[in-house]
Amino acid sequence: MDARFPWFILLAPLAAAAIIQLITRRSRSLSATLSVASVCFSLLASLFVFFGPDGTSEVPWLDFRPAFYVPMGVTIDGLSKLMLLVVTGIGALVHIYSLVYMEEDESQPRFFGNLSLFMFSMLGIVLANNFAMMFIFWELVGLSSYLLIGHWFTREAAAAAANKAFLTNRIGDFGFMLGILMVWTATGTVVFSEMEARLPTLSLTAGFLTMAVLLIFCGAVGKSAQVPLHVWLPDAMEGPTPVSALIHAATMVAAGVYMLARVSFLVELSATAQTVIAWIGILTAVLAALMATQQDDIKRVLAYSTLSQLGYMIMAIGVSAPGAAMFHLFTHAFFKALLFLGAGAIIHALHHEQDIWKMGGLSGKMKWTFLSFTAGTLALIGCPFFSGFFSKDVILLAAYHRSFFLFALGLFTALLTAFYMTRLFVVVFFGRSRSDEAEHGHDGPPAMTIPLQILAVFSVIAGYGFIANTALGAELTHQVHAIHEAGRATLVMTLATFAFVVGTAGGWLLYKGQAKDPVLIPLFRNKFYFDELYEALIAGTQDLLATISRFLDQWLIDGLLVRGLSGAAWATGFALRFLQFGNLQGYAFLFGLGVVTMIYFIVFR
Amino acid sequence: MIPPLSLEIAVLLLGIGMLLVESFSKSDDKRGLAVTAITILTALVGFSFFTSGNATIDPAKAFYSADPTALFFKRIALITTVFVLVMALEYGSVLTKFIPGVTPGAGLGEFYSLPVFTCAGLMFMASAVDFLLIFVSLELVTISFYVLVAYMRRQSASLEAGVKYLIQGALSTGFLVYGITWIFGLTGETNLSAISQVLHTREIATVPLLFGIMLVLVGLGFKVAAAPFQLWVPDVYQGAPTPITAFLSVGSKAAGFVVLIRVLKPFVAVPGVGEKVIFVLAVMAGLTLIYGNLTALPQDNFKRLLAYSSIAHAGYLLVAVASVNKTDESIGSAGVAVAFYLAGYLLMTLLSFMVLIAVAKHSRGDDILHFNGLAKRSPFLAFAMLTAMLSLAGIPFTAGFIGKFLVFAAAVQAGKFVLVGIGIITVAAGFYYYLRVVAAIYWQAPNDDTPIVVQPITRCAVGVLAFAIFFFGIFPQPILNSLHNVPGPVVRSAQR
Amino acid sequence: MTLTLNHYLLVSGLLFAIGFAGVMLRRNIIIIFMCLELMLNAANLSLVAFSRFNLTLQPNLGPNPLPNYNGQVLVFFIITVAAAEVAVGLAIIVALFRARQSTHVEDINSLKF
Amino acid sequence: MLNLIVFIPLLAAIAILLGAPARKTALGAAVAGFVLSLLAFLSYDKAQGGFQFLSSHSIAPEWKLNYAVGADGLSLLMLLLTGIVTLAAIWVTPKIEKRENLFYACVLFIAAGAAGAFASVDLFFFYAFHELALIPTFLLIGIWGSGERHTAAWKITIYLGLGSFVLLIGLLDLYLAIPEASRTFSLIELQRLAAEGIIPAAAQSRPYFLLLIGFGTLISLFPFHSWAPTAYASAPTPAAMLHAGVLKKFGLYGLIRIALPLLPEGAKVWTDVLLVLLVGNIIYIGLVTIAQKKLDLLLGYSSVMHMGYIFLGIAAFNVVGVSGAALLMFAHGLSIAALFAMAGMLREKNPTLSLNGFGGVARSMPWLAFAFGLAAFASIGLPGFANFASELAVFFGAFRPAAGLSEANFQLATVFALWGVVISAVYMLRAYRAIFMGEPGKDTTSWIDPVKMMRWPVTLLLALLLIAGFAPRVFLAYVQPSVQALLPK
Amino acid sequence: MSPFLFYLFATMTLIFGVAVVANRNPVASALSLVVSFLGLAALFVGLDAYFIAVIQVLVYAGAIMVLFLFIIMLLDLKAEERRKLNLVTFAGGSLVTLAFIAQLWQVLRKFELGQTAFPPLSERTVDDVQNVGKTLFGTHNLPFQVIGVLILVATIGVVVLSKRELK
Q1: What interface predicted TM-score (ipTM) does this complex get?
Q2: Out of D377, D425, D439, whose CB is closest to A154?
Q3: What sign for the dihedral angle of Cα A274, A278, A279, A283?
Q4: Residues E93, A592: C-beta atoms closer than 8 Å
Q5: What radius of gyration, in Å, describes the C-alpha atoms of chain B?
Q6: pLDDT tens-digit map of A529-547
Q7: Higher pLDDT, B318 or B449
């Protein structure tokens, strides 16, 4: 296979996006077909590549060698192969699912165009062989995420959410770019492989490394919605549900984890940074889980759960277990996409009702959905023998090896996860139907249920060795095994199972048959007041500064300096005009005064 | 080759001839007189290129020099007079309203012939290298201007201007004469070359010498409208008949500057005196720039605005004069800068006055608002005015820009950065008040829609001036050639 | 006490100052004009004095020392010019008087600012 | 060829003034100019490099003053920009109600001035041509402008007049700092002399300062920027496009072309000051932009803000930074021209352009929403557009500036510049959201997209942005050797 | 010239000069001016400039002053009625004048050559008129011609400005 072959994976969605935007914008079916076809092509090509050899192919993009060089390069190795499969696989399923979900949307072509754009961008991140290129696609996924969140742009909430997502990500990217610049200053390259080769030969100070790694981590904090930049992800649920499934659950938000795994050679160099990363991760996990316990919107619960799971993965990176992180990323992609698509099916069936308290009793009416959702839930809450159980277990084990506190919090999060997912599950599927829509719920057409079923299967089996090992590839598998071999595996597994049982039981007992939430914790319900805090912060800093600056510009620079100076000139002129008062005698006097003064200054000084 | 003095003689003969014809002809129509004068003067401009130098005379005994500078300024005088006469033709109908006369053309003959005599005076000034001739020719010019300024004696503004000019002019003459006295007394010479020799060979008491120089500077500063002796300018310019205002502002100023440069030449080289003279010139330049430009800002009367602008340009010229330096290269040399600036100034000032006359005649007023909507009433005049204003403001591709370019080059070369700084501010002020006219012409709607018609000869002159502004703004070389087409030193009078 | 050049120069300067003061202080134009004549005459006095004392300023005198006649010629010119100036000036002042019935400077300030 | 590029618009303008059909002649001239500049761009022999298409006519032999044109990669890029933006500007011009001839003549004069400045290889004409645009701008804003047009026209004219005069003094100072024997106006000669270090280091500081202020005013360097936003807001669309898109680049071009090679030591003296000022451009103006409530002012301020990045690249004094800056000039020219063009289209619907007066326009004008989105994202530096590629180069160039410059200061400035990227996203997205997203208002629903004919110019601009964004090397291949030649060895 | 005569005539010149300024009546001013000029003419004689002295008396004290008096009479100018004295003008004018005199004093103090006595003159000084004439018509011919033009211009000017009705 030619090393240039992976380019096709990347370019097919771009071609689709471009054609849809420029040519087939008017035709709904053609656009949809094109988009789906492109993603299917990418999936097939990815499969082909997956079983092919590793390799790299690059073309120069910015070329100031020797000073500065940015190629566009695709790299195929274990990591990117895994990600390729996840992205194209879930992407394909979501595309197919969207055919139904977005059927009645008036701007369906735009939706598919943007979806293809997203596929292109995401695949770009996956394939990138250098930091600059990754940053490029990093920004582009931000763009496509913005476009897709804002798909229903006439809704104020959607528009606001889109802006919030983009801006929050930009803040993260600010740090990311700085990090890239720092690393580049030290190594003189942005290409990962060269960087990895050169880093050991340089003697960099610990401070520098910590700084650089943390700045790069900023990018991940933004994209993977870690505390404190997590606020955009729940709001992003304003986008169409397939988007939430694909972008805001399975793929894009995991890009941060992927990126950190990609540069783990760099992360490893700074223990301090690692600690920070791990703690940010676990903090996100715990906080998000707490918030999730009190949400009423089905998608928001899932969104917080995503946050929480991403926290796990980040923590895994922080405890030097990128393999574990990638493992969890892999399994999580399936079950979270499944959960979102399932939620989407419910929402679709209930005519865009998202409040779980207006659902209920759907287990019988939406059989396929119920079954697959169950599989997903079990995988997420770490039910033994489901995929999530294995991957989460590895992370907890890795955390245990590093720090007991991390482990304890991780365990607590697992418990909470079980709790809130059970809450969701029970409230949605059991009990009485609490609204008319819920009464008439029904399964979607096959294009909707089949992706659910496929994902359900994977949610169950993705954790098992024969799949996981293949998918993760030799190196990552080796890492995972290494964690297991480090000991205490049984203890951790037992504790995890215990957490699962306690959480599930708690949720079941508390919410069984409830018509409204028996627990009210304002702090959790209001998401720890992060939004309010930020709003105040933005109003207090940025907007205030902007107003002040505008005031300064208007009154100081334009007013005092520009208008003031020109006004002063005018006024001087106006004043001088009074010398010209028309009286001859006065002129003679001024003349004489001039003479005497000038003589004084010239002759006598 | 024509002997140089014959130019002046021809002009004088022309003037006397005009007076004779005026006295003895029966015709009431004096237009022919002016047209003849215009033709002959134009021809003389041509002849001026074929004059021979006066290399044989001992410069220490000469009154009269026919060096290239002199010739250049003679041409300026001739050309100015030509255009002033064209303006006078256009202005004739206005003028006769304010002269008591029995016949329709009464007083016009003299009005056409006096500028010719003034022109002769200006030409003498251009050549004068002796205080005696300087004084006499200067007075010839001044006295004829007294008459011309007060010419419209039924209009009290004209008379008022005449009186103001008379008194202040006489005052300045008094200072000039007193200053000449001191210089003569100290050196025993009136000839500038001789003075220069004396200054080089003998010790002269510095304080009295400076005193004398200062007094002379007062007199000459008055003529070129340099602050603080500029107060007469706006009143006189506003009151005088417009062609005469133009003549004053171009001819008188040009001749004043050539005299100033010639007079200063012997002194700037004297240690202990030169620096102070340069300093006082710089101070005057700065004051003039500030006064002329800033005072023009709130001005609503266009004629008065041009008066302030005339002061302003005197300021730029003084900057060049104050930047006298050793370099002989063209760019950065003060002499070339002054000469070129004056040539450009001639074109743009005459053009703006010419348009002013045409517009004022039809709009019955010479405020800026009378120019409102000129672009609709007469696109040709509007464009001409635009050209003039651009050149006055110093926009590239106009002669005015090259002038400013050279002036500031000289100033930078001489390291006069304070002056340059003032210049920058005043140039910006200039943008404002010149473009106010452009704004009136192009932005505003006309107050009345009647188209403006001008005489063919005026139209032709306007066209020539506008073309010349652009032509010399792009191809300065002809003027440079004209500055040194005669063998001998370039305009180096300002240099040692 | 012998007379020196400075005596003459002082007289001349005082005369000049008196004339100048008159220009600045008097409000009748004709008198102002007369004061201007005074100033010119002050210059004349200096010129003649310098012309006469010329000899002392040039150490290498010839066998037949003469006053510097250039100065006297200049005086002659100044007087002539002054005459012409007075003629024209008075003509203007008369015309002005006819127009405004006044020769007072404060009455002729319609042109200003 | 270059003579044609300069003189076609000039002659067309004169023809229009003399009564030729205005729009047709103007459009014809613009097309011809664009085609010619494209031809010149494509036929430039990159292998040979240096200045090509030279032609020279002596103007004043005594001063060694020539009308001389010629182009290297950098000037060709700028000429191409001029050609495109001119074409687009004239194309998008809506029907002019009053004095159409004067309008088009003014626009063409601006175009000719810009083309002349970029094509000149003579210092005098380089300066003079730029000034050609001053008065047409004054007339365009004053007669056909909107809002407080008179104030704006006065401000821009006086301010730019002042700035260009400072510039003139700077150029004179520079010229006179060269030893008398080798003084020349020829940029090519000067470049050669620069290599010999003709100006002593001690004499470089003052001219550089003057040039910085002079050019800086033309570029709207903080704090000399306040003419720009109001002028752009009030100017008729083509004037704003040409001014913000092309003319402003003159100053930057001048800094690269003149100050960079001739005054490297002077530049070092003022680098720290420049850094402070450009951070002022980026952060301070960025914040001011956030506070704007009208689209035209917002775009005006944003164009001021983006100048900071270009300055950063130039200040870095290395190939990466300066080439990036040069490409950014091109990119910014295209994107801001496109934005102003579309702001003009919106102005036809809502004359005040107040952000509150829109909402949900994307529904009624999907094409405009799409195109505006592209231009907006280009301007805030999203990958895929030329702006990003060049900004990237600028950042990398500035993070490791040329030897002898303070790395720490540059890195700090880069941090601010990066934060500026966030700021620009804030205001652009706010504006985009206010205009195109949200609940459609009563008026907005009846609006319709511009007709196909009018979409082409914007499409052209955006297409070029994308091409240059995907393949910046195509353009850098022109710029980089030129910059390399200009930088001191 | 004996110092006594010098002081006499100098005082006369100056006092009547002051009288020109100080007199309220224009006629008195004009007559004072005549006397002042006569004093000046006497000083000229003392300086051996006989020709100039004669011209001074004839042209200045004679012709010009007669013209002045004639005009004053013609216009029937009364003594300036006591308008309120403009204190500012008066104070300012006086100050400037005093400052000028002070400066002059300083200049003269610094002018050492001016402190020498009368130099001897050759006998040919008695040919004063001849010498002046030679200079005037010989070397100074050109300015003299220009003066002629000047007078012509002045004549025309006076005619144009004064004639009641131009033809």
Answers
A1: 0.92
A2: D439
A3: positive
A4: yes
A5: 21
A6: 888 898 898 888 888 999 9
A7: B318
